[in-house]
Design a protein that fits this description.
The complex is a heterodimer. Chain A is built from 19 helices and 14 strands. Chain A is an alpha/beta fold. In chain A, the strands form four sheets. Chain A has a six-stranded parallel beta sheet with strand order 5-2-1-6-7-8, with helices on both faces. Chain A has a three-stranded antiparallel beta sheet with strand order 9-10-11. In chain A, strands 3-4 form a two-stranded antiparallel sheet. In chain A, helix 3 crosses helix 10. Chain B folds into two domains: about 300 residues, Crotonobetainyl-coa:carnitine coa-transferase, domain 1 (Rossmann fold); about 80 residues, formyl-coa transferase, domain 3, CATH 3.30.1540. Chain B has 20 helices and twelve strands. In chain B, helix 2 packs across helix 8 and helix 8 crosses helix 9. The chains are: A alpha/beta, B alpha/beta.
Chain lengths: ~450, ~450
């Protein structure tokens, strides 16, 4: 007997559709289930990654390596200090957690760029590759005579990706070239912390707030990787390489784009509004009997659904439209928020999540409810997430058992691709581990 | 005032500009809100021809979500940012004839992107299994919260939901204090970049082999990919948790208040940077201290807390500009925490055209975010802003599918294709004379 599936659309509930979807599910778990023997999208693409204590550069290399590029990380003989950047100093054999996570599929080679011989080797290597990632301070490689100017003459098709706080090509980048990049400073320079936190809290809890993970470094790396692939596509068509300049202090700013849009519209900075949102309500955390739940009601019908299950229908008249709920009168909004929280406190997390799901499943089958889907989920901690079967079925995590580094978990590459899935082929971290192999392959001996 | 012909030939030339690396790529964009639209937007910025399909009358619901209800010329700027350079058609996917139109467009597209709830595209007959039959080379991208397979696949999702089920949501805030979501729909914009990487990789692979593929992006998985928590948990047995303004991977680190009431973010990643900071502070004693000399030692919670306190006191006595000058002189990482108004006025962003002025024939002049990376040869460009629902119906259906005016009138009558409801956000700006618009009233063969 097949298990009954709960769906949230009447289009899915039709008998024919459900049957088709079951077949599709089977097909998908087969095509996405295994990566063994499948080709790699970037097979044959050669990358040199030079970064010094800068994970934006390291992760850019990692993403290309997950997709099958041959990524050679060049380090000074003492190793990249990024190896020791790690939460609370936690490490395995001196290797920090971020480095362990992002070390997949790379080749580790040492070259001393302060030495003439090292520079000659580097030039020889760079003349044979497609992509150079430079996450040193702007102008550093130029000052050694191995910057884009020189490399371009050796390799017409070279794609040179420079990652720095303010870019290599701006007045501010030139003026502040000596300031190294970090995630936190990049968040600050992007204006991101100014959108977080609650100015009504006591000091220092009212300060602009850091996003609690490497929001700037990861977004910068993904943007750099995507941009690099555009240039690579162009290179395949025309043979032409080019310079790409990425400013980590500008990625959140102009990819998400919220700050300039607000600045243009209102001619003043945003007011920080704590747990609220500037365009949607309810869209945030609520407190149940036993912990936090997250509620997202994007459309008016979703909000009506929420009022129904919380038995707060009396509020409907005053707060009918998103227009009523999105307001700069935060005190008024707080009164609604209090009512919702009070009602929420009558339920446990599981109860309210189930109520919302039941409501949505029912409304999917009824035209009268006009398709309201109040979404309520538990706000999970990572250890709770790891217990969720769904992710294990999808191989979201890779369990590593390494001869010298031991057992640990790393997140699998994203996304799932049917033909050329990104994958973790190996994890190794030793400084200069691949010197012999790479020196030989590129004629550097 | 331009006459119709002049204007349209100018606009059509813009469609096929030079130096656009993706100009031969056609994208069928079946997306709404942010996550899906930003994937096709990435491609559109580099010259791909993106055909965005919306529901007649109501359109993409994100049209109705501006900041604090502040519309700009009857439209939502946040929507413009996600939908520049696209062609807008409005087709009812639930009608068989609507489905047929979509399948016809899909058969001549290189990339199809959808972000309906999992299974919905399939149920409507426009999913991967149906499209790949008529277009085996297609790159088909499905975006959802939990992915297209697995027990949770049918659950609806948004940015914030993905943040919660991935464990991100509890990471921002002070220990024991209030928790904050990642702002500005980070849980949409980051997965969209993952999508951009995947589509570009798939296009490169297809260029070499002629093979298309299916791409399944789960928002929550993208958020999990950028967390250190799993590895930390598997090694220490504990959750990494949240740490307020301290980045636990760097010491000292934090957001500090200056003597002139501004905020400085400072984070020290290496021994070299630590020495530089101590020199700038004139604290040779601490530079020699065994507790702080080596990164892994310095990162221990008790040592990090100690050194953070000292840095906090020091920054209190300095102006923001003084700290930045010292950071540049000595070489340690520090930045002022800037706000929206500073950002829109900062010269260096205009120099790199990551934020720039765009001149649009319907909306006029606007300063808008363009793209964060500067390209030497193939820069990202905004050629035109978003358009009202169904604006390009005639242009797309006549030019790409060869329909006649008569065919189109019939489809309109049957409700298969449609236009905007007369609502702010969906319709053209009030001052705009749509009846004289050469593209909206596109006449075949007269270009």
């Amino acid at each position: 007997m097949t298990k009954r599936v709960t769906v949230f659309s009447r289009h899915l509930a039709k008998r024919g559709a459900l049957q088709r979807l079951l077949e599709l599910e089977k097909a998908l778990s087969t095509i996405f289930g295994s990566v063994e023997g499948k080709p790699e999208a970037l097979e044959g693409v050669k990358v040199v990654e030079l970064s010094y204590a800068n994970f934006a550069g390291i992760i850019t290399g990692t993403i290309l390596a997950e997709l099958g590029a041959e990524v050679i990380k060049i380090e000074p003989p003492s190793g990249d200090p990024a190896r020791r950047i790690t939460p609370y100093g936690v490490n395995v054999n001196g290797i920090g957690i971020p480095f362990l996570m992002e070390s997949r599929n790379k080749y580790y080679v040492t070259l001393d760029l302060n030495d003439e011989e090292g520079r000659e080797k580097f030039k020889k290597l760079a003349s044979q590759v497609d992509i150079v990632i430079d996450a040193f301070k702007p102008g550093f490689l130029d000052s050694l005579g191995v910057g884009y100017k020189e490399l371009r003459n050796l390799n017409k098709g070279l794609i040179y990706v420079a990652i720095s706080p303010y870019g290599h090509t701006t007045s501010r980048g030139e003026k502040l070239r000596n300031i190294p990049d970090t995630d936190l400073t990049a968040q600050a320079g992007s204006g991101y912390p100014m959108t977080f936190g609650d100015p009504k809290e006591p000091e220092p809890y009212n300060y602009p707030l850091r996003a609690g993970l490497w929001a700037a470094w990861y977004m910068t790396a993904l943007l750099a990787a995507a941009s690099t692939l555009v240039a690579l596509f162009h290179k395949f068509k025309t043979g032409e390489g080019q310079f790409i300049d990425i400013a980590s202090h500008d990625v959140i700013t102009s990819w998400i784009g919220a700050s300039p849009i607000w600045g243009f519209l209102f001619k003043r900075p945003r007011v920080r509004i704590g747990e609220f949102d500037w365009t949607l309500y309810p869209y945030g955390f609520f407190t149940c009997k036993d912990g936090l739940v997250t509620v997202a009601c994007v459309r008016d019908e979703d909000f009506r659904g929420l009022l129904k299950i919380l038995k707060l229908w009396r509020l409907e008249d005053d707060w009918k439209y998103l227009l009523d709920r999105i307001t700069d009168d935060i005190d008024r909004l707080k009164s609604l928020n209090q009512e919702l929280n009070k009602a929420m406190a009558n339920f446990t997390q599981d109860e309210i999540v189930k109520k919302a799901l039941d409501y949505s499943a029912k409304s999917a089958r009824s035209r009268l409810r006009a398709g309201g889907f109040p979404i309520v989920v538990k706000a999970l901690t990572p250890s709770q997430v790891l217990k969720e079967e769904h992710w294990h079925i999808r191989n979201t995590f890779v369990h590593v058992d390494h001869p010298s580094l031991g057992r640990f978990i790393v997140p699998a590459p994203v996304p799932k691709m049917s033909e050329t899935p990104p994958r973790v082929k190996w994890i190794k971290c030793n400084v200069g581990e691949d010197n012999e192999l790479i020196y030989k392959k590129y004629g550097l001996l | 005032m331009h006459d119709g012909y002049q204007l349209s030939s100018k606009l059509f030339n813009k469609l096929y500009g030079d130096s656009e690396p993706l100009r031969e790529i056609r994208v069928l964009d079946l997306t709404h809100f942010i996550f899906g639209p930003m994937i096709s937007e990435f491609l559109a910025l580099f010259g791909a021809e993106v055909i965005k399909v919306e529901a007649p009358d109501e359109g993409d619901r994100w049209r109705l979500g501006p900041y604090w209800w502040r519309y700009w010329k009857d439209s939502n700027l946040l929507f413009h940012h996600c939908n520049a350079n696209k062609l807008f058609i409005a087709v009812d996917l639930k009608k068989p004839k609507g489905r047929d139109l979509i399948l016809k467009l899909a058969s001549i597209s290189d990339v199809v992107v959808e972000n309906f709830r999992a299974g919905l595209a399939e149920a409507w007959g426009i999913g991967y299994s149906q499209v790949s039959k008529i277009n085996p080379k297609v790159i088909y991208v499905s975006c959802s919260g939990y992915g297209q397979w697995g027990p949770l696949k049918y659950l609806p999702s948004f940015d914030l939901i993905a943040q919660s089920v991935s464990g991100v949501a509890l990471k921002t805030g002070f220990p024991g204090g209030k928790k904050y979501k990642l702002q500005d729909y980070y849980g949409d914009y980051l997965p969209a970049l993952v999508g951009a990487v995947a589509v570009m990789a798939a296009l490169i692979y297809r260029e070499k082999t002629g093979r298309g593929q299916y791409i399944d992006i789960a928002q929550a998985e993208c958020m999990m990919r950028i967390m250190h928590d799993w590895t930390y948990l598997s090694i220490t047995g504990e959750d990494l948790g949240c740490s307020g303004n301290v980045d636990p991977t760097m010491a000292p680190s934090g957001i500090f208040k200056t003597s002139d009431g501004k905020f400085i973010a400072l984070a020290i990643a290496t021994d070299e940077q630590f020495l530089a900071l101590m020199k700038a502070m004139g604290r040779n004693d601490l530079a020699q201290d065994k507790r702080f000399q080596e990164t892994l030692e310095r990162l221990r919670p008790e040592n990090a807390a100690y050194i953070n306190k000292i840095v906090e006191e020091w920054i209190k006595t300095k102006k923001a500009t003084e700290v930045i000058e010292l950071a540049n002189e000595y070489g340690f990482p520090a930045s002022e925490v800037v706000d929206d108004w500073q950002i829109i006025n900062e010269e260096w962003r205009k120099e790199r055209r990551s934020i720039g002025e765009v001149e649009d024939h319907m909306y006029g002049r606007v300063v808008i975010p363009i793209f964060p990376a500067t390209f030497e040869k193939t820069p990202a460009k905004i050629k035109w802003l978003a358009r009202p629902v169904g604006y390009h119906n005639r242009y797309v259906l006549k030019k790409l599918l060869g329909l006649s005016e008569k065919d189109i009138k019939r489809l309109e009558k049957e409700g298969v294709i449609g236009y905007w409801d007369n609502v702010v956000g969906l319709r053209p700006p009030c001052y705009y004379d749509i009846e004289r618009d050469p593209i909206f009233n596109y006449k075949e063969g007269e270009e």
